[in-house]
Design a protein that fits this description.
The chain is mainly α. The protein contains 3 helices and no strands.
């Protein structure tokens, strides 16, 4: 239950042929394949950046802004005033 059997796949194929026509289906499949390939390549190229931030121990992450660099653990800026 929950999976697609051969009958359901044949019905879906027939509906796609009726909606898009037999000549358009290979073009649609090719475009979908290219889009998935691009998406996969882009997510793979982003993985090293994501893994770098996950692998850093707590408290050693790079500050997001210059203001964060000038504040210490007390929350006070370089001049001693609250930030």
């Amino acid at each position: 239950m929950g999976g697609l059997g051969s009958t359901e796949l044949l019905i879906l194929l027939a509906v796609f042929v009726l909606l898009f026509g037999a000549r358009k289906l290979p073009e649609l499949a090719r475009g979908t394949g290219q889009a998935l390939r691009i998406l996969r390549d882009e997510t793979r190229s982003e993985e090293p950046d994501a893994l770098e931030t996950v692998d850093q121990p707590a408290g050693t992450s790079r500050p997001a802004s210059p203001v964060a660099q000038s504040t210490g653990a007390s929350g006070l800026g370089a001049s001693g005033s609250p930030v």
